[in-house]
Design brief:
Largest sheet: none
CATH superfamily: MFS general substrate transporter like domains
Number of helices: 20
Pfam family, one: MFS_1
Number of domains: 1
Main location: membrane
Number of strands: 0
GO molecular function: transmembrane transporter activity
InterPro entries: MFS, MFS_dom, MFS_trans_sf
Distance between the termini: 65 Å
Subcellular location: Membrane
């Protein structure tokens, strides 16, 4: 009997072991894919619809003052000069003051209770706007409304970033942001219906009914949605308790940890997270980017008045015509976010979107024909909305060293970004109506600033990625790099 050489037997055994390991790895990968698919599907059926609805309500309650302006709010309250502009701007002061404390607190409480609670509070305040009778009362209620609305968006986005990694977050943020877009679109249609059917009913002006109806609707929906919101992946509370298996929750934690550029577990206090965020200069670059975007998006609170200046029809027709640009903007946002996730790129997608907005502003400022100006509004509405949603996703992924830092950083970026919403209403001076040429020029400048910050951030993160590659050059583990 002829025996095989020892080295040949060892080689055959080695090949067999490699084959077994490969099969085991393939089975593990397939199991992980199935687990991830199940987890994402459940999140997309619960978490996403809830925060989408609440965000839509958030902007309905915040922006209904723009429709109220067309129904005589200024006249009924005796507003003069720039008092309407101040009423819009003051909301963002309250918004700024509450954002960072709220997001720091959110890391230590249950989002499924905390977020709906604040929705109920702002709903009551929004409905109370129907009771104001002068400028001082309007400013006071708008300031309190901003304070109550502040916890929602940064909190909702932070909750999203705790469940979705970089490869999924941009599209989900675009979906969330579409709530804003569609709220702005349908607010005009809703206002048109209320003004047509309830103006003067029971002795109340149509704009008062608008605040009452939208505030009441938001309150009751907020109470219902609290039962569907999950808390954090490690929590055994909220809808995740009955929605997800233990295996799915553990997988959710691992995939977010693996998605972070680095893990800093030494100090997980909320104060350390805030301090770490404040020391990171990238936070302030992102804040400048978002501030520039929000400034360029300052047309939003005046869009019904802008469309009214096109002289395309009555007040009802004007309100109806405010919807199409925002509906198109929602679709464009989805496409841009899908492309951004697929190509794992943020900066160029934001820059191209803002460039589109600039083209729209230039056309609107150059033309005198109402048809051309209305077409131009499609461009700047779509461009600004598509860009805004991507800034949040880019910042969250670049500043995700710990969940506490991410919560503080996104809140700081969002609150500083609100400065654009504070000063942009003053761009729209009464003497410039209906074309608002000065405002269009200033929005072009800030859109250009946004594009500039994108290139600066791409350069910063490219440099950081090179450092990470060099740091892990001799390590078996590959680093998670920043998305550019």
């Amino acid at each position: 009997m002829i025996s095989k050489p020892i080295n040949e037997e060892a080689s055959a055994e080695h090949i067999e072991l490699d084959s077994t390991k490969a099969a085991d790895q393939e089975n593990q990968d397939e199991s992980a894919r199935k687990l991830e698919k199940s987890l994402v599907r459940k999140l997309d059926m619960t978490l996403m619809p809830v925060i989408w609805i609440l965000y839509l309500l958030n902007y309905l309650d915040r922006n209904n003052i723009a429709q109220a302006k067309l129904n005589g709010l200024e006249k009924d309250l005796g507003l003069k000069n720039e008092e309407y502009n101040t009423a819009i701007s003051i909301l963002n002061v309250g918004y700024i003051l509450m954002q960072l404390p709220s997001n720091m607190l959110l890391t230590r409480v249950r989002p499924s209770l905390y977020i709906p609670l604040w929705v109920c509070v702002w709903s009551c305040l929004s409905a109370a706007t129907a009771a104001v009778h002068n400028y001082r009362q309007l400013v006071a209620i708008r300031f309190c409304l901003g304070f109550a609305e502040a916890p929602f968006f940064p909190g909702a986005f932070y909750l999203l970033s705790c469940w979705y990694p970089k490869k999924e977050i941009a599209l989900r943020t675009a979906v969330l942001y579409s709530g804003l877009v569609l709220a702005t679109a349908f607010s005009g249609l809703l206002a048109a219906g209320i003004f047509a059917g309830l103006d003067g009913a029971h002795g109340l002006q149509g704009w008062r009914w608008l605040f009452i109806i939208e505030g009441a609707g938001s309150f009751f929906i907020a109470v219902a949605t609290g039962f569907l919101l999950p808390d954090f992946p490690l929590s055994l509370t909220g809808s995740a308790k009955w929605l997800l298996t233990t295996e799915e929750r553990e997988f959710a934690v691992r995939r977010i940890q693996n998605d972070q550029v680095s893990n800093e577990e030494a100090n997980r206090s909320v104060w350390y997270g805030a301090k770490s965020a404040l020391k990171d200069y990238r936070v302030f670059v992102f804040a400048l980017m978002l501030c520039a975007n929000h400034t360029a998006y300052g047309f939003n609170n005046f869009y019904p008045s802008i469309v009214e200046g096109f002289n395309l029809g009555s007040t009802i027709v004007t309100l109806v015509l405010t919807a199409p640009p925002y509906l198109v903007g929602a679709m464009v946002s989805f496409l841009v976010a899908w492309s951004s996730d697929r190509n794992r790129e943020r900066g160029f997608h934001i820059s191209v979107s803002m460039s589109t907005a600039i083209i729209g502003f230039i056309i609107s400022a150059s033309l005198t024909r109402s048809g051309g100006q209305y077409f131009a509004s499609f461009l700047y509405v779509s461009g600004c909305f598509a860009a805004n949603s991507l800034v949040y996703t880019w910042a969250a992924s670049a500043l995700s060293q710990t969940s506490e830092k991410r919560a503080a950083a996104t809140a700081i970026i969002n609150l500083l970004g609100q400065l654009g919403n504070i000063w942009s209403p003053y761009f729209f001076r009464g003497q410039d109506a209906p074309r608002y040429t000065l405002a269009l020029i200033l929005m072009i400048v800030f859109a250009g600033l946004s594009i500039g910050t994108c290139f600066v951030m791409k350069w910063i993160l490219t440099r950081d990625n090179k450092r990470l590659v060099a740091q892990f050059a001799n390590a078996a583990q590959k680093p998670t790099l920043h998305t550019l």
